[in-house]
Amino acid sequence: MVSISAAANTARQVNVNKTESLEAKPQKTLAGAALGAVADGVSISTLAGRLSAAAEHTSERLKGLDHKALQDQLIADDRKVFYELDTAHKTAAAAQLPQPEDKASAGSATAATAFVNGKGSNPFAGLSSEQLSTISHDESGTFTINERRAAATQAYREEEAWRQQVVSQAMQEYNNTGKMTKFFSAVLDHYNNLPQLEKAAYPENYASDLQDKIKLDFNYFNHSPGNTGPTKGSIADVTNNNKFPAKLDLFDMLGVKLQDRSGQIGS
Phi, psi at residue 190, to the nearest 5°? Predict the structure, then answer.
């Protein structure tokens, strides 16, 4: 069994407030915007300009915040973005206009609203994790709340898919070697490539803890580091059973449980 410090439980635990209202600035009603995904209606230069403006605003907004304050901001952003999907909230969200108020940006906003309402594909599929984070945490009004929700949903789904893949590989590694060193290395690489704000969802010592586990190269089957033989009382010594626990959630133990958004993320 993997022993993980209880301190790792400081990861993101976002419980969306079902009754929280949109805390957005007054927006003009979106009218006459042609429905279409970003890939169809937004020029590269338009999207690049919006991303640049949003990133600059977010950088100023979060300047000087420590890890705990960033973590709190991440939770607050998620609560706003994953608003209650009732008629009042959906109407208010759909009425928002993006900046700039041009055809391409309006098309993106309309496509995001269609996605949230289950009537279209995600307009931000294919963007990088950095771009998705920039959109989902934008408070400048450049991106509408539904664009932010669509971006956050895409990021969630990609993270979920990656976790399923890496856990499957970890099970194979454990069953074949008794170790999870490659798993810890893959998780560390993934963490190092996350957008800066998303790292706030993880414990502050997350990277160093993974580095220690990689260096230890522990064999959980033999209950010993490296390639030494089984220790007395180990799984290998007592049961000769090296099967990976079927219901073991590795990311729970690492303190980074992925918030279940299956009922909140649209189509």
Answer: -65, -45
Whole-model pTM: value is: 0.74
> In this structure, are residues 160 and 258 in contact, taking their beta carbons and an 8 Å threshold?
yes
Q: At what angle do helices 87-94 and 145-177 cross, to 10 degrees?
A: 110
Round to whole Å and give the CA distance between 191 and 177: 24
Say how far residue 266 (Cα) sits from the centre of its chain: 16
Answer left, alpha or beta for residue 112, where phi above 0 means left and psi between -120 and 50 means alpha.
Answer: alpha
Q: Are 239 and 57 in contact (CB under 8 A)?
A: no
Q: Give per-residue pLDDT as tens, 137-196.
A: 999 999 999 999 999 999 999 999 999 999 999 999 999 999 999 999 999 999 999 998
For residue 34, CA distances in Å to 37, 104, 114, 155, 191 come to 10, 9, 11, 25, 38
Amino acid at 254: L
The contacts of residue 3 (CB under 8 Å, 6+ apart) are none
